[in-house]
Design goal:
CATH architecture of the largest domain: 3-Layer(aba) Sandwich
Strand order of the largest sheet: 10-9-8-11-12-14-13
CATH topology of the largest domain: Rossmann fold
Radius of gyration: 19 Å
Shape: globular
Number of helices: 8
């Protein structure tokens, strides 16, 4: 079978939105080639860092790649992808060059092309993301392993917005907490919350592809008794009172349901929000304060921001 490799040259800001469009168009996984990755300095305590070839990465911006079957629907699908990416400007996203290139690859090449980019990565004090085909033994007694197969999920779990959320969960989630994960995607944050001792996690996503991917990853990590994945729009279907709400979504979407988050949370409950591009940090912080939250932490990683807010008492 022939596959078409679609490579979209975009900005750091629009990377996740472009990746989501590709998933919605039928891609079961994406490759993200970030121009800054070869120069990024990582702490290599456990030998998990692999040497990267600069020739595998663009000179600037980000290449988001996906694979779609070559069939009679491909031309129409490509037109839909181009239109959807063009519409991102209405959400305030700069898509940059937005060039789209396609090339054909054989079935065998497609099945293994992206695996060279994905190895075990320690993303926080306790969490390590491990691809399902890699053998990995925990180095520390309290290390927590999240297994992922990016062929069925939304990325590798190592994007800065995801990493900051995982680090915040590690810092703030207490055993027995109830957690709501809004826009769960691959389910990484829900899995992390469960492994940290949450008694119940509600994972929500509006995309049926994400719901399916999250369920598969949650079963892979054997936390299905704790994590419930449902199709839902933001917090509309949540009737319980969570201790923590985490959302790794766009800034404008966070603002759109921040009042609902405040209403659901008890006094002292936490709202962990990420997916916020740097220039919108103050906008989100001001919105959260106006809704009755106090900002207890704001973290910057590369061009991205995560905010931890606590619901103030009356």
């Amino acid at each position: 079978m022939k596959w078409s490799e679609i490579a979209i040259h975009t900005t750091h800001e629009a990377t996740e939105a472009v990746a989501n469009i590709l998933h919605e168009s039928g891609a079961s996984g994406v490759i993200i080639e970030d121009s800054v990755e070869p120069d990024r300095i990582h702490e290599d305590r456990f030998g998990e860092i692999y040497e990267l070839d600069r020739n595998d990465f663009p000179s600037q911006g980000v290449l988001v790649k996906a694979y779609l079957p070559v069939n009679s629907f491909l031309i129409e699908t490509m037109k839909d992808i181009e239109q959807s990416i063009g519409n991102l400007a209405s959400f305030g996203l700069d898509v940059g060059e937005n060039s789209i290139q396609t090339s054909e690859v054989d079935d065998e090449d497609w099945a293994t092309a992206w695996k060279k980019y994905y190895h075990p990565v320690k993303i926080s004090g306790r969490f390590t993301i491990v691809p399902t085909w890699e053998e990995y033994e925990p180095v520390e007694s309290d290390e927590l392993i999240i297994e992922l197969d990016p062929g069925m999920a939304f990325g590798t779990g190592t994007h800065p917005t995801t990493v900051m959320c995982v680090q915040a969960l590690e810092k703030y989630v207490q055993p027995g907490n109830t957690v709501v994960d809004v826009g769960t995607g691959s389910g990484v944050l829900s899995i992390g919350a469960a492994l940290l001792g949450a008694s119940k996690v509600h994972a929500l996503d509006l995309d049926y592809v994400a719901v399916r991917a999250a369920k598969e990853n949650i079963e892979l990590n054997k936390v299905e008794s704790i994590v419930e994945v449902t199709h839902g729009n933001l917090l509309e279907s949540i009737q319980i009172q969570p201790d923590v709400i985490v959302a790794n979504i766009l800034a404008d979407v966070i603002i759109s349901f921040s009042q609902d988050a405040h209403t659901l949370l008890p006094e002292g409950g936490l709202f962990i929000a990420s997916g916020i591009i740097g220039q919108k940090r103050d906008l989100v912080k001001e919105d959260l304060v106006s809704k009755g939250f106090e900002i207890i932490e704001s973290v910057l990683m590369e061009d991205w921001v995560a905010i931890v807010a606590r619901k103030k008492g009356v």
